[in-house]
Predict the 3D structure of the following.
Amino acid sequence: MAFRRIILSIAGLSVVFSFLALPVDCGQEKVTYFQLRVTCTTTINVNDTGVDVPDAYVCQNSKVTWNANGHDFVVLFKHACPFPSCKKIDNQHPTAGPINNLQQLTVFDYGIVIDGTLYDPHIIGGG
């Protein structure tokens, strides 16, 4: 019986020592940063298939103009509005802005109804 206890104790200690021998540096990884450079969108062209820029990157203090190109359209922001006023953006009032001062990159989902058909592009601003 004492022999069994000795064997079990040795086996238990060997398991503990094997865990202690494992490398422990998971919290010391170096953080890598990337810089994304995009062109600021100031003009969005309305066409038969929606808009030419479905994900428009808008820079701070920039205005955006939707070119109707002979279409009737209305822009409606679904949640938050990136501009000081989003009450009326349409083919009669196509310019909005400047974009609000945002601390982080934010995606604004909007709908645009072009000649009776709804499309779902985005305005991305801030950062």
Q: What stands out?
A: The longest strand covers residues 106-114.
